[in-house]
Design goal:
22 strands, 24% strand, 6-stranded mixed β-sheet, 13 helices, 508 residues, Ubiquitin-like (UB roll), homodimer, Nucleotidyltransferase, domain 5
Chain lengths: 508, 508
Amino acid sequence: MIKEPIIQRIDLTIPSASLEDTASDWERVQRAVCTLLPDRPLDPTLAALREVGPALRHGDWQVRVTLAETGNTWRAVSIKPGFDTSPLYGLAIDLGTTTIVADLVNVETGQVIVSQLAYNAQRDFGIDVTSRMIYAEKPDGLAMLRHAAVKTINELIAELCTKARLEHRFIQAAVVAGNTVMQHLLLGLDPSSIRREPYVPAATAFPVLDAVAVGIDISEGAPLYLFPAASGYVGGDVTAGLLATRIAEEEPLSILIDIGTNGETVLGNREFLLACSGSAGSAFEGCGLEWGMAAQPGAIDRLRFEDGRLIFHTVGDEAPRGICGSGLIEALGAFLQSGLINRSGKVNLDLPGAHSRAGHPEIVLVPADETAVERDITLRQGDIENLIRDKAALYAGSRILLANAGLTFDDVERIFIAGNFGQSLEIEQAVRIGLLPDIPRERIKFIGNSSLNGARDALLSCVAWQRAQEIASSITCLELTVEPRYFEEYTAALFLPHTDQTLFPSLK
Amino acid sequence: MIKEPIIQRIDLTIPSASLEDTASDWERVQRAVCTLLPDRPLDPTLAALREVGPALRHGDWQVRVTLAETGNTWRAVSIKPGFDTSPLYGLAIDLGTTTIVADLVNVETGQVIVSQLAYNAQRDFGIDVTSRMIYAEKPDGLAMLRHAAVKTINELIAELCTKARLEHRFIQAAVVAGNTVMQHLLLGLDPSSIRREPYVPAATAFPVLDAVAVGIDISEGAPLYLFPAASGYVGGDVTAGLLATRIAEEEPLSILIDIGTNGETVLGNREFLLACSGSAGSAFEGCGLEWGMAAQPGAIDRLRFEDGRLIFHTVGDEAPRGICGSGLIEALGAFLQSGLINRSGKVNLDLPGAHSRAGHPEIVLVPADETAVERDITLRQGDIENLIRDKAALYAGSRILLANAGLTFDDVERIFIAGNFGQSLEIEQAVRIGLLPDIPRERIKFIGNSSLNGARDALLSCVAWQRAQEIASSITCLELTVEPRYFEEYTAALFLPHTDQTLFPSLK
């Protein structure tokens, strides 16, 4: 793809006004832009109209015009004097149910200046998309959720700006990828129809909005791009993931599994895209687990059994505060290997490290005195069951997609696992617990936050952004709740790795 | 012109969503609209996206969609349930330097529900466009002027809504016609270049904006249309006046004189349009006169000499509070007839009604005990000189336009005088003082607020709105300050009716 960012600057020398040519400042700029870019009409934002006069005169009729891609037109976002040498910044935002991550990007160099994660303040109103949708139906619920998302994003922006020593007004675009419910809540769109058959959202494609009008505290007139979704449960984050992985551009049959709060899976290649969502995966994001957390400093991101004891690694090598997705997958694998849990996930209280507290079995990951929180960091029996349910849902989702396409895991050439993980992960353990199928390990790739990666790709390429629209509209969505074999597949997968061990021949 | 208002409603029955057709709410509406109106793409406002889901479900898949004209696209402004029977309201606004007038219009019937006038709160920062432009260059000056205009408009809207017993959210569009400086200040555009050679504004044409984003308190997502201007001194109010008078559509050679604070004059017909602005006319709007006021209740709008005394009429037949434009023209004529002033405008202190106060000659229009203000309402020598200067400037402007076109007043088939007058006016007096040329009186028409009329025309017809764009770009502007003969013409007209009495043969 040609690397023309979604916002671009052009430097123009404008013929100065005279009594012989008294066209307005904006008309002069418009003429100059349209000579260079005659393909589409040019519309000004109010912010650009406010800037044009002073920019022309302070810049001695040399100006830098920032243009935004909007599909059918160019939008003049800002007009600065020609000597303005400030970099052109944009935001790529992964608007997650649990966490929101923002990259501050120099869109002209492609460099990520700084990246920042925060928990979505909407968590106070419900842990997953369903509980948020229920909350949105309360009086003022939608407004409160909207404000919580906007507040979290603005706090992230403030931190990014502080770290980069930057004023907000230098950020001239934002690209947001989130699941359909999160995107609805950010915009204040009623999501209530998404949770009722036939699960239809208010919108799947969005016009290029005005970031400030949505409440996002960046430059006046800056465009806000929201990734197009395929359905109420296959959202903009999936579209962004497909964009980032290039699954929809290439020949190899691939699966993308996004272990986010929503647990979406897509099967396909450049010929077709088949997707489902299982409302699964949130346990692997740490949701609902006492010690679950994002892959932030202090999160256990690696864990293995060695010489009868658990060896762990944390993000930033800090004293542990909790455990993130990659740590959870490795923990389950290590427990199974060591016999601390059996194939049903039951904790074996006879082994050291396992004990019962208030009648609930649990396994100690790190004793209190080695943590930053001065309490034992543990996985409880209930946590383990949550994780098994989620891995079963994810595995069953892939199986249903494959069955619908008349394919099997053997046909799959690449599996991309996206999620809020640490730097790396022992793929063997993900297969051992049956989260991933027993295929050649080199076909499996953990790719981190593919939603964020896709948002960044779109920010840096208007061709990529246009491609995202095509990808979203070419996805066929399966509704698992009405798939007759789904429940059967799910139940069969509630075992480590699976009730049908012939599906995992290499694990014998 | 076809009477399709600038915002229109269409009633749609939308196929309900099902598991077989899970297109989003907005996509379904879009499909239905695009089937009916396939000529242009349809873009939603954020407000419409927020409404679409509830509207479809409350309306049982029957909706009323309000669409706004934007030139290249349709903009979906709001989506209501099909049973919504509230009228569709819009605002036509004349954004004057001295006064702002707003009509609340039912755009489907064309009926003006109520009309309201208020003094522009920007008056606190300067009486005319030049002083406002100077103020705009002070720190925060532009923001203060912008807020003052927005505040005045919002107060007008509040009064209109109270009178019509209406909520603001039922007003779904606003069309504003004002001079170039006023439109700049409303939007917060820097007007400083307008007052410096070559007198170029930031913009003459404006995109269809979001009224709420500009600060105007009407329905979320409602479009704001600003009339296109021809130059820094020939503004959207003139374009609106041309639209209202149909000068640019018809064959007869016409002159439009807008006796507003800015005093613009246009000569032309459907073949050509030549315009100038004299920064003249504000005295006839009452500006700078102790007792000047708008044509509001209590304003003396008619005045004549009968049996040795002045007979007056006021707007609303209330006790007098001041004098408006039509009253001022008639007063000058009556003074000249009665000898209270001579042809230079000098007050004759020997006649009853004239006296000197603190060394300044003045003529009493209404003695204190007959007024609502318990003071003599007078015209002072200085007021009279102001009026003569303004009438001279207006007359000289027309002469220069005619000379540039190689024409004379004899070629002019219609003169339209627009201004903030009462119901009617003695045309003879306007000729007597030389404000108007000595042509057959039936060719002269006082048309009231042509800027407001044009704004209303555009609100009620998108064809008229499109026509306004063409009109504005076809106007040729003359800059009087660089016209060599202007000063000469002006000086010659500083007499009642004129130094060259052969120009006024009928007055002998």
